[in-house]
Amino acid sequence: MTEPDIYLSVIVPAYNEGARLPKTLRRFEEYFSSKPFSYEILIAADGPRDNTIEIAKKMASEIKNLRILDRRKNYGKGYTVREGMLAAKGKIRLFADADNSTDIAHFDMMRPLFDKGYDVVIASRDPKDAPGARQQFPQPFIKRLAGNMGNLFVQIVAVSGIWDTQCGFKAFRAEAAQNIFSRSKINKWGFDIEVLALARTLHYKIGIIPANWINDPSSHVSFFAYFQVLLETVKIRWNLMRGKYSL
Predict the structure, then answer these.
(1) 3-state secondary structure 166-204
(2) Ordered domains of the chain (ranges, CATH)
(3) For the segment 223-235, what is each residue's pLDDT rounded down to a tens digit?
(4) How much is the CA Rg of the chain, to the nearest whole Å?
(5) d(CA 176, CA 141)
(6) Which of 161, 156, 202, 198 is nearest to 181 (CA)?
(7) Using one digit for the tens of pLDDT, what is the confidence trace for 115-138?
(8) Residue among 140, 108, 146, 112 at smallest CA distance from 217
(9) Which tens digits make up the pLDDT trace of 35-91?
(10) Taking CA atoms, which of 113, 117, 184, 238 is between 20 and 30 Å from 107?
């Protein structure tokens, strides 16, 4: 007996998310309750040190269509999203952060772009990418400064023309997800840049929607991560030049 087709897979990478996960999953349940399409939710555990996995398993009786990728060793967000994307079954595969800072309802803006033939659709917090994008509670000045300077570097080295490569809300057609994530190599924070660079190189059509982003002060992203992203951006350019992605 064949499994029914799934329209949307939502992959949630989860490190230490035991405190934030229940609220996000209940919001997902509320959103999907009024939708006509089939879906699944994948919690991709990244070796959490808290009770993330136990909370997710407990909520499986409350949240419909919930699957858990139970990995006890920490490898990084990039590795975790890749694992979830390749394990997903949906025709569209979306990864969304566990804090729901870009609310799941943003997918309503993504669907029409997929219907028009886009292969990859991303959310951006920068109005230069998409008019109407905004951050309800701006990040601290030092983080904004580092982010702006870093983005200019990213555009020069790897992904030109996209002002916000790091928003944690990106969706892919199944074929694009398979082709991109089966090639990706970055395991940490720079993976967003890598998947966009690969999408461009593979000639996939990328659409952008505006995000109404709510900053979570308990974010796991450290200031050091900005420097790590820059180093990984150089590595991505090197990998492209050296043919490391088997394109």
Answers:
(1) CCCEEEEEHHHHHHHHCCCCCCCCCHHHHHHHHHHHCCC
(2) 6-241 (3.90.550.10)
(3) 677 789 999 999 9
(4) 17
(5) 36
(6) 198
(7) 999 999 999 999 999 999 998 876
(8) 140
(9) 999 999 999 999 999 999 999 999 999 999 999 999 999 999 999 999 999 999 999
(10) 184
